[in-house]
Amino acid sequence: MLFATPVVTPAVTPDLRQLRYFIAVAEEKHFGRAAARLSMTQPPLSQAIRALEETLGVELFARTKRSVELTPVGADLLPEVRRLLAAAESLRPFAQSLARGEAGVLSLAFVSTADYGLLPPLLRDFGARHPRVRLQLTEATSDVQIEELVAGRIDAGLVIAPLPPRHAAQLSWLPIVREPLVIAMSSVLAARLDETAGRLSAPDASADAVDTGWHRQPVSLTEVADEPLVVFPRRLAPGFYDIIMDCYGVAGLAPRIGQEAIQMQTIVSLVSAGMGVAMVPQSLRNLRRTGVVYRPLRESVPAIETGLVWRTAEVSPVLAGFIEIVRAHAAAVAHPVA
After folding, report:
1. What is the pTM assigned to this prediction?
2. What is the CATH number of the domain that holds 261?
3. What whole-number distance in Å separates Cα of residue 65 and Cα of residue 152?
4. 297, 193 in Cβ contact below 8 A?
5. CATH no. for residue 48?
6. 67 near 57, Cβ under 8 Å?
7. Whether residue 236 sits in one domain with residue 131
8. Which of 89, 115, 132 is at the close of a domain?
């Protein structure tokens, strides 16, 4: 019976051992001294260098009986080999940093309302504790975030509750903050309402006014019931939309839908332009826009809950670190220090 003789294919890439040998010979310029430095004998070192040259297809050293010098190719290659070895030597500590959540990438999406209250302190605290983690931030509506999460394209999202029931089994939810809705209106409308109701109004209640405390007199939903309502389309934020509609319904009112917009910044801009009023989370008062004021409502209104959502089965060390920051923030919001 005949057996085929195995064919030994030479390595197509050098190994790290060969690269270390190359650096030693290049620095010592002598095979004997390089071998002593490497705690080996000279013949295996010479063979390893020859094998490296054959693998690369170039001569790295010009050899004579008295000297060993780098060829021009070898001299140009030396800095790159040093860089490669340094990168290889840093691989283990970097892998351990990844395992501890001290390095890596976190892909985080957020609703536009979070940008004006919740998001900045979370990013500040996380950045202070995990400075080597690179954040990939994306603004998106809650429905888009849920689909991106389920598809595995983001790690976590800051969304407005509730979660779609069809995805609840595979997603984890951490509530962070609950805040009431307030009315955003043009300063011209606010001044007119204050004058009609005999409330104190700011001396500069004009189209150029901003929210200054003077404008925080509560108003009733009935006072703005005839104004067009600027709102998110229901298909993009059904939970948020339904809460707003319920507020009108409980007050016995039917809202007159005016403009629809998918970004809070756009909604507030439309309000500033006199296109109507909007019900927005209280934290949006941090969005200062000329000609817009924010008023609390006299009616009891439900709170908007914003929280963190992620895939239950896929929690990387980096994400676990972010969740820890969010839990601490949620606890601080629930139990503020006096």
Report:
1. 0.69
2. 3.40.190.10
3. 62
4. no
5. 1.10.10.10
6. no
7. no
8. 89
Q: Which two structure tokens, joined as six digits, stand for 153?
A: 């394209």
Contact 221, 325 (CB under 8 A): no
**From CA 127, how far away is CA 27, in angstroms rounded?**
42
The pLDDT profile of the chain, 338 residues, written as one tens digit per residue, is: 444 444 444 556 788 898 999 999 999 898 989 999 999 999 999 999 999 999 899 999 998 877 899 999 999 999 999 998 888 887 777 677 666 666 689 999 999 889 988 999 999 999 999 988 999 999 998 889 999 999 999 999 999 988 888 888 899 999 999 999 999 999 999 989 888 877 655 444 443 444 444 446 899 999 999 999 999 888 877 888 899 999 999 999 999 999 999 888 899 999 999 999 999 999 888 888 889 999 999 988 888 999 999 999 999 999 999 999 999 999 998 765 54
Determine, yes or no, domain membership for 5.
Answer: no
187-195 CB contacts, 8 Å cutoff, 24+ apart: 187/215, 187/291, 187/292, 187/293, 188/274, 188/291, 189/224, 189/227, 189/274, 189/277, 190/215, 190/293, 190/295, 193/219, 193/223, 193/224
Phi, psi dihedrals of residue 37, rounded to the nearest 5°: -60, -35
> Domain range for residue 37?
16-89
Please indicate, yes or no, if residue 208 is contained in any of the structural domains: yes
Last residue of a domain, one of 89, 110, 129: 89
- The one-letter code for the residue type at 263 is Q
Angle at 169 between CA 125 and CA 328, to 5 degrees: 20
3-state SS class at 313: coil
Same-domain pairing of 192 and 146: no
